[in-house]
# Entry
Amino acid sequence: MGISGELIKRLRDIVGEEYVLTDKIDLIPYAYDASGALPHLPDVVILPSSTEEVATVVKLAYEYGVPIVSRGSGTSLTGASIPYSGGIVLRSL
# Structure
């Protein structure tokens, strides 16, 4: 899918540069969960620190038509936290 540089910049403006992960090495742990399903890399991982940041990221993703996968610790046995369509992984608070 791919995410535009403009969207990445806006996400960094919301949560801070250090809380927007885009390097492949940082994305790999978010590509799978405990289900054993095939991994799929997200385009970006967001580590929000408030519900306000979460709400703003969700609105922005909607604006750009980018899918979001909400993720906790990745212990799901159903594949529910795997970003099958890429997009944004939104790590829970």
